[in-house]
Design a protein that fits this description.
Elements (H helix, E strand, L loop, with lengths): L2 H18 L40 E6 L5 E6 L5 E6 L3 E6 L5 E6 L5 E6 L5 E6 L4 E5 L4 E6 L6 E6 L5 E6 L3 E6 L4 E7 L5 E6 L5 E6 L3 E6 L4 E7 L5 E6 L5 E6 L3 E6 L4 E7 L5 E6 L5 E6 L3 E6 L4 E6 L5 E6 L6 E5 L3 E5 L1
Antiparallel strand pairs: 1-28, 2-3, 3-4, 4-5, 6-7, 7-8, 8-9, 10-11, 11-12, 12-13, 14-15, 15-16, 16-17, 18-19, 19-20, 20-21, 22-23, 23-24, 24-25, 26-27, 27-28
Pfam family, one: WD40
Protein name: Sperm-associated antigen 16 protein
GO cellular component, one term: axonemal central apparatus
Length: 348
């Protein structure tokens, strides 16, 4: 065999080993969006107006955890367990057993305040958004940060998991939102269109639609598969701090920096109702599972409960400073709130 033939044979063998060897580094695959026609399984458990709407006074505070030394920026409940996570201006997130209040885990790694968090649909991971312009994914079994996405150029305000668990969306003070593939660890798309800070983001349950709210006074719906804006809602006169879908996905609730709360019909892209709970800023909103009640985290240290059928507003007092976040459990039996007083409070 000539030297040339030997060299060609060697190259051929190396190529075959690279392709067939089990020790070769696997390529990270790109995820595919699921079909946009699935039914939200949580809807089967939704009933009529919850009993607390027909009782005098509604919710009562049933517990309080002194969670952080600085302001609590967000609270969120585990999809299946009696567990809550708080995020804070102290750069930490903490996991709590509720209602007992025992601390389970603390996440340390961000270098600035944490603005938002969202549980993976499977409940085994947490995504966080921070003022350090990073999105992080944390794994509970490993008690460690798995991924860091540093592509935003300014503070990140919000983060939301797709229901399939393969995609993550984030929104930022850099006026953009981004969609991340957690399997390939790449940014799939950057959503451009808002003219000011994008303050919140949420995937529609079991769908490929994203909802954003912005300081440019608008809300927008986006197709996550194409990264294109599908609809824009106009009507707020001030910066929109937060916007969320109800569980059915046919109504949006939004709130702004002057305490105006609006309800929107998703199908008709039109306003349904406006409720003024100002003049203090409304920081976040959350629908109860039945869709008959909206909780508003207000800067005046109260949680305002809006009964959607009647527009009646009930105030829940208890926090010592601005309320920054609210969340309902999937059964609608209790609610949690977090505030600038560093506390996590439970209501039922």
């Amino acid at each position: 065999m000539s030297l040339r033939e030997a060299r060609e044979q060697l190259v051929s063998n190396v190529r075959q080993e690279t392709i067939s060897s089990p020790s070769a580094v696997p390529q990270k695959h790109r995820s595919e969006f699921p079909p946009d026609c699935r039914v939200n399984p949580y809807l089967t458990s939704v009933k009529g107006p919850p009993a607390h709407l027909t009782r005098t006074g509604g919710f009562r505070q049933t517990g309080c955890i002194r969670a952080h030394d600085l302001s609590v920026s967000n609270v969120t409940l585990h999809p299946r367990k009696q567990i809550a996570v708080t995020t804070s201006d102290d750069h930490l997130w903490k996991m709590w057993a509720i209602p007992g209040g025992d601390i389970i885990m603390t996440g340390e790694g961000h270098t600035d305040w944490i603005a938002d968090c969202d549980f993976h649909p499977g409940g085994s991971q947490l995504a966080t958004a921070s003022g350090d312009a990073c999105v992080k994914v944390w794994d509970f079994a490993k008690a460690a940060c798995l991924l860091t996405f540093p592509d935003h150029t300014h503070a990140v305000w919000g983060v939301s998991w797709h229901s399939c668990g393969d995609f993550l969306a984030s929104c930022s003070m850099d006026n953009t939102s981004k969609i991340w593939d957690v399997n390939s660890e790449k940014c799939l798309a950057t959503l451009r269109g808002h003219a000011d800070s994008v303050n919140s983001i949420q995937f529609l349950y079991f769908a490929n639609t994203l909802l954003t709210s912005s300081a440019d006074k608008t809300l927008s719906l986006w197709d996550a598969r194409t990264g294109l804006c599908a609809q824009t809602f106009y009507g707020h006169m001030h910066s929109v701090n937060n916007a969320v879908f109800n569980l059915k996905g046919d109504t949006i609730g939004s709130c702004d920096s002057y305490g105006t709360v609006k309800f929107w019909d998703v199908r008709h892209v039109s306003p349904m109702m406006t409720v003024d709970v100002g003049p203090h800023p409304a920081n976040r909103v959350a629908f109860d599972p039945s869709g008959h009640l909206l909780a508003v985290a207000s800067n005046d240290a109260t949680v305002k409960m809006i009964e959607i059928g009647t527009s009646e507003v009930t105030l829940l007092a208890g926090h010592d400073d601005a309320v920054q976040a609210v969340d309902f459990d999937k059964g609608g039996q209790f609610m949690i709130s977090g505030g600038s007083d560093g506390s996590l409070r439970m209501w039922s």
